[in-house]
Specification:
Elements lengths: L7 H14 L3 H20 L4 H18 L9 H20 L17 H10 L3 H11 L5 H8 L3 H20 L2
């Protein structure tokens, strides 16, 4: 029988998840530090930039309240990502998809480059969209993205490569 060796970060995360589920606020704070950028990127792929920061807080509040119900610490990353995606959907249900005035450029003006790029990234397939935002907006490295999302490093590399190619094509077509 072979032993499966878990990466150190995963086993360390498991310990933090168990401690946080038992009520250790410092452990939950460390999970926040490790995963806030991932959650922010997932939200930014779906909601206006000004809303994403508040929703990050809501995602972690929900996670803190429900952490004891998580059956397997190994599923934490996917579970946290699902909470973020659900919060984004709830946000649009609650606001009926209305953008605030400060989010939209004034009428008759060109869209600022950052908003244009974000709009184009949001039009990419979901697999590329989240990975691209983690890299370009959150500044995460490929290995960090793989570690936080549970994707293989090769999948992250492929998603970034294909996503960048698609983004370049979209920006050149503008």
């Amino acid at each position: 029988m072979q032993l499966m060796v878990m990466p150190a970060a995963t086993s360390e995360d498991d310990g933090l998840i168990h401690a946080a589920a038992a009520g250790d606020r410092a452990a939950f704070g460390e999970l926040y530090v490790r995963y806030a950028r991932m959650v922010h990127a997932i939200l930014l792929a779906r909601v206006p930039p000004g809303e994403a920061e508040d929703l990050v807080q809501e995602v972690f509040l929900t996670a803190m309240r429900q952490l004891r119900r998580l059956r397997n610490a190994g599923g934490f990353r996917a579970w946290l990502g699902a909470i973020a995606r659900n919060k984004a959907m709830d946000h649009f249900r609650d606001t009926h998809a209305t953008a605030s005035l400060e989010e939209a450029p004034p009428c008759g003006t060109a869209m600022p480059d950052a908003f244009l790029v974000l709009e184009r990234i949001r039009s990419l397939p979901e697999a590329y969209r989240e990975t691209m935002l983690m890299r370009l907006v959150e500044g995460m490295t490929g290995p960090e993205i793989a570690e936080r999302t549970g994707l293989t490093p090769e999948s992250v590399r492929v998603n970034l490569c294909r996503g960048m190619k698609m983004l370049r094509e979209l920006l050149e077509a503008k």
